[in-house]
What does this fold into?
Amino acid sequence: MSINNYNPGQRYRDRATQRFTNGISMIIVIMLSSSVGFWMGKQYGAEKSISLGEQVATLSKERATLQANVTELRAEAQTANTRYEQIKAEYNSIMPEGPMQDLTRLVREQ
It folds into this structure.
């Protein structure tokens, strides 16, 4: 037969110690969880910052290229408008005016 080492005077202190230990361990688990969460958030923020910096650099280069294209196209449009005005002036100088112009238009329609 075994002899129990049960001490009724000590049980309340043992329970209090056990509750205290459990409480401390819960606090440690919560602190570790929040620390890991904060660390992961910091890593995500740093990674996001790097990717956004790269995206800004890429978009800036693309914007510069597009602005160069717009400038080139505007120059070409201006050249085309100037050429159109020259051809229009030349056409108007060659085409007859007045009744002869009406006669030429009627001939074209037929």
About this structure: The chain has one domain: 11-103. The two ends are 132 Å apart (CA to CA). Helices lie at 11-94, 99-109.
